[in-house]
Amino acid sequence: MKLGLILVILVVLAGVGSYALSNHSSSSVVQSPKSAAVVPAKSAKTHVAVRPNPCAGNTFDKLALVSISQRHMWACQGTTLMYNSAVVTGMENLAADLTPTGTYHVYAKETNLYLNGSDSTGSWHDYVNYWMPFLDNQYGAYGFHDATWRPANAFGNISPYSSNASHGCVELPLATAKWLYNWVAIGTTVTIES
Fold first, then answer.
1. How far apart are CA 26 and CA 129, in angstroms?
2. How much is the pTM?
3. Which of 98, 146, 188, 191 is the most exposed, having the fewest neighbouring CB atoms within 10 Å of its CB?
């Protein structure tokens, strides 16, 4: 009798565990309270960004939070998560190309321009639809921009220790860059975490 009861409990627990796993391995959605638009949180094929409530404790009106290690960006309106997306960040092994950690502010918003530069890895002349810079330092300007030259599955999957990482900017899928461009204002806080 006891052995049968133990087997029933184990079967039930195994079923609950597989249900929980199947619910967390698929794509999730975030619903914006203002627009009620459904926004994909992650593709099931990208690097998994696990963060219970990235906006909890946020005291800024608007915050763009980026985690280099999780390869992810969250847009917070107060403590409400408005949007999130996988990203590509800079090459951590090159000082000029790493995405600098810290807190900054978006200081411009531009569309339809070329980003030009060069470093020890070569030169670039990349067209971007959306450009939202947040930092200038001795290496140049850093900001958010779309990266239409990357395949969709690159976002969230390129290690910051890879030579395929960015030159320091936070690269976004085109739809994310468009959404972020329309949401951020000059002065919006940007926090980059390692």
1. 30
2. 0.74
3. 191
Cα–Cα dist 191/173, whole Å: 19
User: Of 179 and 49, which is predicted with more confidence?
Assistant: 179
- Cα–Cα nearest to 71, from 51, 56, 52, 53: 51
| Domain segments of the chain as ranges | 58-193
Q: How far is CA 193 from CA 6, 65, 91, 101, 144, in A?
A: 46, 8, 14, 5, 15
Q: Would the CA dihedral through 185, 165, 160, 175 be positive or negative?
A: positive
Length of the chain (residues): 194
Q: What residues pair up with 187 in beta bridges, in sequence order? A: none
Q: Which tens digit of pLDDT belongs to each residue from 88-113? A: 999 999 999 999 999 999 999 999 99
Return d(Cα 175, Cα 37) in angstroms, integer: 13
Block residue for tokens 């079923």: 15
pLDDT tens-place string over residues 13-40: 333 333 233 322 222 223 222 222 323 3
Q: Using CA of residue 184, residue 182, residue 49, residue 16, what is the dihedral sign?
A: positive
CA torsion sign for 66, 70, 75, 78 is negative
Burial of 125 (0-12, 13-18, 19+ CB in 10 A): exposed
Tokens of 158: 């390129």
